């Protein structure tokens, strides 16, 4: 099974900061990597699919990239509504697995 | 609008059974793969199963294989999760999600239904 190692597990940042979250896959998954945002008590929301494709309706401040088996979610300028937990997920076959999550908190 | 609504959660004793439903609306349900994902209290997300759009091909996480069964009724725009031999570690919020066939990403999620397994 492919494992996803996500880091950091949490971070503190200020409004306007650039934030980077990474996920490393334990084997080659091509571009089959997706990013989700989850706020407390709410369902997850798809942000990025296929490593770098912005889901419709998601602000352009979110972007995704890939380098080999390393994937990055970047928030270019953190806004108040971006404080949440972020998860990566590989969809390269089954079982699909999620990263452990990154909680983005206000500094 | 595109919507998924889960139901059927509740309190069940260890070893018991429960059937979850997910009602889809606002899109052609039979065109899409569907998945169930769960989240234990204070924990991360866990993919547990998916079903393809028409042939009924399914796949399961090891944690639920042999105990849970996913199914769908395309005529009724509904997805189901039959859960048997429930354990305490199955306690979670269960989400259904629509799966896009290109990169198997989950683009629409329900709000979830809570399952508690406890004596």
Could you explain how this protein is built, in words?
The complex is a heterodimer of chains A (107) and B (119). Chain A is an all-beta fold and 107 residues long. In chain A, 0% of the residues lie in helices and 50% in strands. Chain A is built from no helices and 11 strands. With 119 residues, chain B is an all-beta fold. Helix content of chain B is 0%, strand content 52%. In chain B, a hairpin with a 6-residue loop joins strand 9 (92-99) and strand 10. Chain B is globular, with a radius of gyration of 13 Å. The interface between A and B is medium-sized, with 24 and 23 residues.
Outline of the structure:
The complex is a heterodimer of chains A (107) and B (119). With 107 residues, chain A is mostly beta strands.
Relative strand content of chain B: over 45%
State the secondary-structure class of chain A.
mainly beta
What characterizes the major β-sheet of chain B?
7 strands, mixed
**Could you estimate the helical fraction of the residues of chain B in percent?**
under 10%
Q: What pattern of helices and strands is seen along the backbone of chain A?
A: EEEEEEEEEEE
- Overall radius of gyration of chain A: 13 Å
* Oligomerization: heterodimer
Distance between the termini of chain B: 39 Å
Question: In whole angstroms, how far apart are the ends of chain A?
Answer: 36 Å
Share of helix among residues of chain A? under 10%
Structural category of chain B is: mainly beta
Largest interface in this structure: A-B, 24 and 23 residues
Query: Largest sheet of chain A, described in full?
Result: 7 strands, mixed
Number of helices of chain A: 0
* Individual helix count of chain B: 0
Write down how many β-strands of chain B occur, each being a DSSP E stretch of 2 or more residues: 11
Poorly predicted sequence stretches spanning 5 or more consecutive residues of chain B: none
